[in-house]
């Protein structure tokens, strides 16, 4: 079984679920998960976790993301993108400076209401399922952070922009909200996710490319090992006499370490056995001289 993360470049026409299903067939293993939904019409970075790396899915979903989007002003749709039904059209008579001011005004924190056409669940049902039945339900606004909006080009009624934002941000909704702020409405015409944490679009592999690498026996070269995702944490090595403790995911004392104590302070560390096999992330408390498990990744298959 393969354990690690691969940077998939999701192409248009695939759901995130489709990507996972295709990957299961390509690499011939069931334990696979993705790290954040992309709409079928969107493309770009979709980190996919394999094997024990699926324990990372929630952590990668929490990472900040960067998108390249085209906002179409003057058109409002039920899905907040151009794939939906047009519900309003308005003339766009603003100056570029007025548009710039409205767009950049969304930088910082703001309360965003999730769209009806989304995978969020209400009473066990996905919102998009209810929307397709013509059912509208009240959604609570969620605080999101727009770190930066960089306007790349304005050719009204279109605005091309790069958005860096926190998890849970809907770029479709941001486009709609900008249009509402201007008073003419707006929707998203295209979307490319260019970055999720350390993963970038230019380094991504399409499903076809991954399939070819598997046939050549070269896929492993493109798998990011789990411990590489924590390369900011110090590495410690547990001596053989204490191996059973980490085999069972238990706490272990400071004297279990096989050297590497210099400068060790409170916080998360990467734990390996004496042979260099990665076990997981532990939290070290200097006062107690104890390491406690946070998340284990030991590959047993």
Walk me through this protein's architecture.
With 301 residues, the chain is of the alpha+beta class. The protein folds into three domains: 87 residues, Pseudouridine synthase, CATH 3.30.2350; 132 residues, Pseudouridine synthase; 70 residues, Archaeosine Trna-guanine Transglycosylase, Chain: A, domain 4. The chain has seven helices and 18 strands. The strands form four sheets. Strands 1, 2, 3, 4, 7, 10, 11, 12 and 13 form a nine-stranded mixed sheet that branches. Strands 14-16-17-18-15 form a five-stranded mixed sheet. The chain has a two-stranded antiparallel sheet with strand order 5-6. Strand 17 and strand 18 form a beta hairpin. The longest helix has 12 residues. The radius of gyration is 23 Å and the shape is elongated. The model has no long low-confidence stretch (mean pLDDT 91).
What attributes does this structure have?
301 residues, Pseudouridine synthase, Archaeosine Trna-guanine Transglycosylase, Chain: A, domain 4, 3 domains, five-stranded mixed β-sheet, 7 helices
CATH topology of the largest domain: Pseudouridine synthase
Helical segment tally?
7
Q: Supply the helix-strand structural class.
A: alpha+beta
Number of strands: 18
Terminal CA distance: 6 Å
What is the arithmetic mean of pLDDT? 91
What global shape is seen? elongated
CATH class of the largest domain, anyone?
Alpha Beta
Please give the CATH architecture of the largest domain.
2-Layer Sandwich
Helicity, in percent? 10-25%
The CATH H-level superfamily of the largest domain is Pseudouridine synthase
Percent strand: 35-45%
Roughly how many Å is the radius of gyration? 23 Å
Biggest sheet, in brief?
9 strands, mixed
How many distinct folded domains? 3
List low-pLDDT spans: none
Order of helices and strands: EHEEHEEEHEEEHEEHEEHEHEEEE
């Amino acid at each position: 079984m393969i354990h690690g993360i691969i940077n998939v470049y999701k192409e248009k026409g695939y759901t995130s679920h489709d990507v996972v299903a295709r990957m299961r067939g390509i690499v011939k293993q069931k334990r696979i998960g993705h790290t954040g939904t992309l709409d079928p019409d969107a493309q770009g970075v979709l980190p996919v976790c394999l094997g024990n790396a699926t324990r990372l899915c929630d952590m990668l979903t929490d990472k900040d993301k960067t998108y390249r989007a085209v906002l179409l002003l003057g058109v409002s749709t039920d899905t907040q993108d151009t794939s939906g039904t047009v519900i309003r059209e308005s003339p766009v008579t603003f100056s570029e400076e007025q548009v710039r001011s409205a767009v950049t005004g969304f930088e910082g924190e703001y309360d965003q209401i999730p769209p009806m056409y989304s995978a969020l669940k209400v009473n066990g049902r996905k919102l998009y399922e209810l929307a397709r039945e013509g059912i509208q339900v009240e959604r609570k606004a969620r605080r999101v952070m727009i770190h930066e909006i960089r306007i790349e080009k304005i050719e009204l009624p279109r605005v091309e922009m790069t958005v860096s934002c926190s998890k849970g941000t809907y770029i479709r909704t941001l486009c709609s909200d900008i249009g509402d702020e201007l008073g003419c409405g707006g929707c998203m015409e295209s979307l490319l996710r260019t970055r999720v944490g350390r993963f970038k679009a230019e380094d991504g592999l399409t499903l076809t490319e991954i399939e070819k690498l598997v046939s050549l026996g070269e896929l492993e070269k493109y798998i990011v090992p789990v411990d590489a995702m924590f390369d900011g944490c110090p590495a410690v090595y547990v001596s053989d006499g204490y191996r059973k403790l980490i085999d069972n995911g238990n706490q272990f004392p400071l004297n279990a370490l096989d050297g590497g104590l210099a400068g060790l302070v409170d916080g998360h560390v990467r734990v390996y056995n004496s042979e260099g096999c990665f076990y997981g992330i532990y939290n070290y408390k200097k006062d107690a001289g104890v390491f406690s498990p946070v998340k284990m990744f030991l590959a047993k298959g």
